[in-house]
Amino acid sequence: MAIIRIHHLVKQSGGHRILDDVSLTIAQGQVAGIVGPSGSGKSTLLRCIVGLEPFDHGEVWVHGRWQIRGGVTAPRDTLLQLRRTVGMVFQQFHLFPHMTVLRNVMAGPLHVQGKSRAEAETIASHWLERVGLKDKLSAYPAQLSGGQQQRVAIARALAVQPQALLFDEPTSALDPRMAAEVMRVIDDLADDPALQVAMVIVSHDLSALRRIADVVHVLDRGRLVYSGPADEALAPNGPTAHFTSSEQPR
Amino acid sequence: MSIEPAFPYPVGSGGRLVWAVTLCIAIVAPVAGQEPAPATEVLRFGTDPTGGAPYIFKIDPAGPYVGFEVELASYLAHKLGRRAVPVEGEWSTLPELLDKPRHGEKGIDIVLNGYEQRDDLLQHYAATVPYYVYRLQLVAHAEDDSIQQWSDLRAGKRIGVLEGSVAFDYCQRRYPGQVLPNKDVAIMFEEVKRRGRVDATVQDNPACAWFVFQEPVYRGHLKIVGEGRQPGFYVIYLRKDDLQLKRQLDDAIRDGFRDGTLQRLYSKYGLWNADQQWLAWSLTGQFPPEDDAPIETLSSSGGGSVIPLIPKLLQAAGMTVFLSVASFPLAMLLGLLIALGRVYGPSWLAAPLTLYVEVIRGTPLMLQLYFLFFMMPKIHPVLALDPLYTGILGLALNYAAYEAENYRAGLLAIPRGQMEAALALGMTPLTALRTVIVPQAMRIVIPPVTNDFIALFKDTSVCSVILITELTRRYNELYNFNRDLVVELAILTAALYLLMSYPLALVARTLERRWGTPHVPR
Fold first, then answer.
1. Run of H or E residues at B135
2. How would you classify residue B88: left for phi > 0, otherwise alpha for psi between -120 and 50, otherwise beta?
3. What digits encode the pLDDT tens for the residues A119-142?
4. A97 touches chain B (CB under 8 A)
5. Residues 6 or more apart whose Cβ sits within 8 Å of residue A134
6. Are A142 and B417 within 8 A, CB to CB?
7. CATH number, domain containing residue B123
8. Relative to the CA of B423, which of A137, B83, B192, B264 has its CA 20 to 30 Å away?
9. Chosen from A77, A79, A94 to mutate, greatest number of chain B CBs within 10 A
10. Which residue of B lies nearest to A76 if distances are taken between CA atoms?
């Protein structure tokens, strides 16, 4: 069953097509990697999916019910429902600096799902334990390493029980050791059969994607140039070869 | 002794023009009966034109000042072979101009502006013989049957008086809690006429005679109630070492009474009465045998200790605190809403909110308070708020503009990613603002906001213009009647401000330490 379906999505800016007729589908529980050279539109595509970025043509369907159409302002309720179904983890974490780690993760259950404080705390504690930060509940984001902050961001996104989770270059702001730490957490979540959360991971870490992703979509200058199994896409002479030779994967 | 004003000039609809022409001629021409003399030297007299008619005023805004004291100054200068030149100042501080160099900016030779003979002033300055006997007169609305005599004021009537005047002191002592002081005489007659914020006003009889009988706008709307009270003398103040000038002025005043010049002058303004006749007899020593009753005159306070005044200052300090703590939360709330409207609101809302901020920031707080207090009731009577509410509202509206700019800066300082992260979690924009953006912005702006709170604390003194007695106003009131305690009162008042504002600074520092830096752990 498709969680996210993208039909002929076009986004233009200043006469330039940032995304050019992109169509793809993300199935339930599937882990999809999106790769491509810098400026190919990977992050923009994720932002279009959750309605943080408007687009000009095409459609985004989530769960077959919530639709964003190009050139049309999406209804407020549609956006809310869609974002409660599809979570997002950002490159720069964007944790709320005035809240403790626990409060950051409680924010969704408390303010989005309307759960009681006790329920929200239980949920938040569970997810923080899951990402290995049980001992950091009362810390503030500024007291954590980058890798720990990104793990909090993942826990925060998961706490609202999304059916899909979008990762926008989750490790590119981290040093290799911390990046490996974060990818290990994502790997662990992807392997959890009980979770059944579809994941879309934009990353330059091709070796990690080869390990985690079921499928890989390759974007080049806004166009989707390849969709297929990760092993094939990331093979040395596969569709990513021409940009991985000039850009060192992390 | 009653006042029997004489009104030698017609003042009907056509009479006003005649009156104006007469006065203009009077100010330009030398006083009748006097030979012109070369007037190369000037006699600078300190005066406050805002005191208005009949003392000093203008009929034509572009024309010269007229008024019985302007003519008196002209007469006296003429007698001294000089030319009278008015030097404008604020009424309550006119005597202090005598402490400045005579020929410097705002330098004066004499103070001639309805100043009473008072012990506290006589300690510092010399005074001439009296040139006028005034009495405190009660004026109410002509149709107000509830005020028929002075004792009717005791039924909680609100009484407008000139700040720092003897009338103020008199009413404060006799009708405590009912007095609304103001610096503008005309405003109080206006308030009585439209039955606004005051029920009656107590003024010196020259002002009352003018507004009740001479000024066409008020004639028929006002009435003089009961007998004049608390008689006292208007004198001219000058430097203590100006003995020759004092002698010349005393002689000129006596001459003026003796030859009838001052009777004619006062009569022209409807100010000649039995009291002035008595003064003329008294100064010239020409008492008729049947009328030698002395006038009991006012003895003002002075020469005392500052200790008894402390409770009065503390009471006013309470009002300062109340005004601050009542208005600032409103300013913060309104400022936050304005900032949110400008940063996150619909595009059509930004322009009017920006206009509001610019208009408020670009105009003086005093003017805004004047507008709320005096102009709004003219738009609709229901908008006539009590002084206290007007003060709180005025301060809140004014400071809201400044707080809006603080909050706007705070909101713009929050990285865009914070709002995106909150929205991506599924929060509504309002929830995102409430739980994520505003709390961070509030922390960022703690230093400027607390700074503004301390500034507002001191700006409450501007509320004195709308009849609120806060610390600065109380200082002025006390100072007016205790000029010998000027240093002690000033130090005490400054100390009170410091005592109240320093804890605020400490609170501000604590808040900054705890919440002021959101990206750094506590």
1. strand B132-141
2. beta
3. 999 999 999 999 999 999 999 999
4. yes
5. A125, A128
6. no
7. 3.40.190.10
8. A137
9. A94
10. B428
> Following DSSP, what letter does each residue of B12-34 receive, concatenated?
STTHHHHHHHHHHHHHHSPPTT-
- Partner-chain contact B518 A97, CB within 8 Å: yes
Residue owning tokens 């309470």: B318
Are A98 and B518 an interchain contact pair (Cβ–Cβ within 8 Å)?
yes
Cβ distance A52 to B423 less than 8 Å, yes or no, reads: yes
- Alpha carbons A128 and A137: distance in angstroms, whole number: 8
Helix and strand tally (H, E) in chain A?
9, 10
For residue B295, the one-letter residue type is I
- The reply to whether B417 and B483 lie within a common domain is yes
- CATH number assigned to the domain comprising residue B501: 1.10.3720.10
Residue with token string 């009017």:
B352
> Looking at residue B249, what is its pLDDT?
95
> Which residues in B have their CB inside 8 Å of a CB on A?
415, 417-418, 420-428, 431, 435-436, 439-440, 443, 515, 518-522
Find the closest chain B residue to A77 by CA distance: B428
Same domain, B126 and B145: no
Domain hosting B213: range is 134-231
Name the residue in chain A with its Cα closest to that of B433. A111
Token pair belonging to B111? 């103070």
At which residue do the structure tokens 């004047």 appear? B370
